[in-house]
């Protein structure tokens, strides 16, 4: 019997993976060959999706992008034995794009059957949890702090320090809340991890619970990710069945219950306090801080709020040690970051690599230029609230501090490529439009500032008193950045400022006109 | 072949509504799960459900209404038979998303957030579907589709989300 992997990842399905899987099964029946099709996660090489892998005596061999029309020819070429075909890429693990990465957090994604508990344990799952169960909460917090792991959701706060704060809080009960409301355009790593290795998230949450003394957790997944919702829900059910969740985790005296909650289409619920409000069943309106959620979070109780990738990275720290993890990276950016290459890019997908390579290296080594074949004009890093950077800034190393010093941010690691047809005035206006559409409305700088921002940019682009308009816009940006309650209004100025700084010619169209 | 939302979803029934509400009322922070469940059952959250939810969860009708109108997923009226979401995020903008969005409103004859008068289609904008390396991205009747330009969108809408 042959085993064939066809990703069940929603991105792969969006370009026909289901149809390819069905075609392979039908062709196998027609030829009287026994083929087991496993729906794995995606390896993250999106330009090769649907990427079909065949298990051979020499390991897994990749073919892609496969369409249903290619299937008969693949059988003809003997792909079940790794036969040569024009769509063939040889040994999957040796594809340079993958081989050059440091796949720590994403080690299992695309490799295993996402909902097979056996696969999970067979590929290093539960090692971290078993270790955590024999450590004291303080030891876990300390090890995570030593690893240098910082929150991967965007803010970059040290995970171990946050956990220690919750551990030291006296109020009970305590909660673990996973922020899986991955709303930033250009980011899809949380989604792929939840679809491709959902047990990892569950294990991370249980460990967080042990570390802070919480026995109840919630995963808040955005509704735009129905496949991730289904995968996490199924994994939670399987984890209960296997005894990884429930009153006696892995037979220990420690109990942990986990529930999934689905968002309802509000970007602001990715902001941690808005997410907590939403979990409580309220409008997703941000809270003023302090009090910190670590002390007064969900239902007013001490709460760990961590992003999916932060929780998943903890497993690497505990399974392989703090020193192993912190040996990756540079400066105060330790470990690996799961970057996501998207937009107008030749080879988009997941690039997990140690912090420190430059933006330019990332785009050359992995991105492979634009999909359109035209020159890159701008790259937006860190989601809709991140800066647009021109090729002149591609020397920036991908690390939190270097980006912050340049008026940019790494955020959740999304990198969106634009070619030279982009109109940066449209992008600046969009940043304000987006903020106007998604502001929760609690504070005035964000709620009103975004609307005024659209108007001012429109006046500038129309060429009406451009110099005065730019002064007014800069004043507005300062007010929003300094006066907003949360990062929504506070960071919307970042992309707009970057357009003013690097692409002023797109805004000022009056030059040369009488 | 067409997944007809109005046929799949139940007509209003107070008994069914109360049963749906009751199934989630014991959860912590039950309001959002309750509203999701009502929408799943009826296709939208009927105004007649609002006082029932308020009573069952011991909150004010204003609280329920406030939540219902805050979240863009929650509908107060029945959507069209074909539901189209077009991603407006930056990654899709970089590969022709603006043109696709214009084509969608023009060809379907509705603005974003609107439903055609004959109930044939509802068009919504969405900010990122997490398919950022394979854009432009849409969903048709909940099915995610990547690399969709004008011609592909027309074909998907005609087939109710099923690729030919």
Please provide a written account of the structure:
The complex is a heterodimer of chains A (514) and B (164). In chain A, the strands form four sheets. In chain A, strands 2-1-3-4-5 form a five-stranded mixed β-sheet, with helices on one face. In chain A, strands 13-12-16-14-15 form a five-stranded mixed β-sheet. In chain A, 58% of the residues are buried. By secondary structure, chain A is of the alpha/beta class. Chain A has helices at residues 10-14, 17-31, 71-76, 96-99, 117-122, 127-133, 137-147, 159-168, 189-196, 198-212, 226-242, 272-279, 308-320, 322-326, 359-367, 400-405, 424-438, 444-461, 466-483, 487-491, 493-502, 504-507; strands spanning 2-5, 35-38, 52-56, 59-63, 88-91, 175-180, 216-221, 257-262, 303-307, 329-330, 333-334, 336-343, 349-354, 376-381, 388-389, 414-419. Chain A contains 22 helices and 16 strands. With 164 residues, chain B is of the alpha+beta class. In chain B, 45% of the residues are buried.
In helices, the fraction of residues of chain B equals: 40-55%
Overall outline of chain B? elongated
From the structure provided, what is the oligomeric state, counting identical versus distinct chains? Answer: heterodimer
Radius of gyration of chain B: 17 Å
Largest sheet of chain A: 5 strands, mixed
Largest sheet of chain B: 5 strands, mixed
State the end-to-end distance of chain B.
11 Å
Return the average pLDDT of chain B rounded to an integer: 92
User: What amount of the residues of chain A lies in strands?
Assistant: 5-15%
General shape of chain A: globular
Content of β-strand of chain B: 5-15%
* Helical content band of chain A: 40-55%
**Low-pLDDT regions of chain B:** 1-7
Order of neighbouring strands in the sheet with most strands of chain B:
2-3-1-4-5
Strand segment count of chain A = 16
C-alpha end-to-end distance of chain A: 76 Å
The CATH topology name of the largest domain in chain B reads Glutaredoxin
Q: What would CATH call the homologous superfamily of the largest domain in chain B? A: Glutaredoxin
Count of helical stretches of chain A: 22
């Amino acid at each position: 019997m042959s085993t064939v992997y066809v990703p069940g990842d929603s991105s792969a399905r969006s370009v026909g993976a289901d149809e390819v899987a069905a075609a392979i099964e039908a062709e196998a029946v027609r030829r009287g060959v026994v083929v087991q099709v496993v729906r794995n996660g995606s390896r993250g090489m999106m330009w090769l999706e649907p990427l079909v892998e065949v298990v051979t005596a020499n390991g897994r061999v990749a073919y892609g992008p496969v369409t249903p029309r290619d299937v008969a020819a693949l059988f003809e070429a003997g792909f079940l034995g790794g036969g040569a075909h024009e769509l063939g890429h040889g040994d999957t693990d040796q594809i340079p794009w993958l081989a050059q990465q440091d796949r720590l957090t994403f080690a299992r994604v695309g490799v295993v059957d996402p909902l097979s508990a056996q696969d999970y344990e067979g590929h290093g799952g539960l090692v971290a949890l078993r270790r955590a169960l024999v450590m004291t909460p303080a030891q876990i917090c300390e090890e995570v702090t030593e690893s240098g792991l910082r929150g991967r959701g965007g803010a970059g706060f040290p995970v171990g320090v946050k956990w220690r704060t919750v551990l030291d809080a006296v109020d009970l009960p305590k909660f673990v809340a996973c922020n899986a409301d991955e709303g930033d355009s250009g980011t899809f790593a949380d989604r792929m991890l939840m679809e491709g290795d959902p047990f990892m998230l569950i294990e991370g949450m249980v460990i967080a619970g042990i570390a802070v003394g919480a026995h109840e957790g919630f995963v808040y997944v955005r509704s735009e990710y129905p496949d991730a919702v289904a995968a996490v829900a199924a994994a939670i059910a399987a984890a209960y069945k296997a005894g990884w969740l429930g009153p006696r985790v892995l037979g220990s005296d420690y109990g942990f219950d986990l529930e999934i909650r689905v968002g309802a289409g509000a970007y602001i619920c990715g902001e941690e306090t808005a997410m907590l409000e939403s979990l409580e069943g309220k409008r997703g309106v941000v809270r003023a801080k302090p009090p910190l959620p670590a002390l007064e979070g969900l239902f007013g109780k001490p709460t760990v709020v961590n992003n999916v990738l932060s929780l998943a990275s903890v497993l690497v720290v505990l399974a392989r040690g703090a020193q192993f993890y912190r040996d990756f990276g540079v400066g105060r950016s330790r470990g690996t970051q799961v970057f996501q290459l998207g937009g107008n890019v030749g080879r988009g997908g997941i690039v997990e690599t140690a912090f420190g390579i430059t933006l330019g290296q990332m785009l050359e080594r992995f991105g492979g230029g634009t999909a359109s074949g035209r020159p890159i004009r701008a790259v937006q890093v860190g989601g809709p609230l991140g800066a647009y950077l021109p090729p002149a800034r591609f020397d920036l190393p991908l690390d939190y501090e270097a980006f912050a010093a340049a008026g940019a941010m790494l955020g959740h690691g999304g990198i969106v490529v634009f070619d030279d047809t982009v109109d940066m005035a449209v992008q600046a206006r969009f940043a304000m439009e987006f903020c106007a559409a998604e502001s929760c409305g609690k504070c005035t700088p964000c709620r009103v500032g975004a609307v005024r921002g659209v108007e001012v940019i429109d006046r500038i682009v129309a060429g009406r008193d451009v110099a005065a308009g730019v002064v007014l816009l800069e004043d507005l940006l300062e007010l929003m950045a300094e006066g907003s309650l949360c990062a929504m209004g506070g960071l919307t100025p970042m992309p707009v400022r970057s357009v003013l700084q690097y692409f002023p010619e797109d805004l000022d169209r009056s030059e040369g006109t009488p | 072949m067409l997944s007809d939302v109005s046929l799949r979803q139940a007509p209003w029934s107070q008994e069914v509504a109360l049963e749906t509400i009751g199934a989630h009322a014991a959860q912590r922070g039950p309001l959002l799960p309750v509203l999701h469940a009502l929408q799943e059952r009826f296709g939208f959250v009927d105004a007649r459900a609002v006082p029932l939810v308020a009573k069952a969860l011991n909150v004010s009708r204003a609280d329920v209404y406030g939540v219902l109108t805050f979240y863009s997923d929650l509908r107060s009226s029945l959507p069209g038979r074909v539901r189209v979401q077009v991603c407006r995020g930056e990654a899709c903008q970089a590969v022709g998303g603006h043109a696709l969005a214009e084509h969608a409103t023009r060809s379907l004859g509705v603005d974003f957030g609107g439903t055609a008068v004959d109930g044939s289609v509802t068009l919504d904008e969405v900010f990122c579907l997490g398919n950022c390396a394979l854009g432009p991205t849409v969903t048709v009747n909940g099915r995610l589709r990547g690399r969709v330009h004008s011609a592909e969108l027309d074909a998907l809408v005609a087939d109710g989300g099923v690729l030919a």
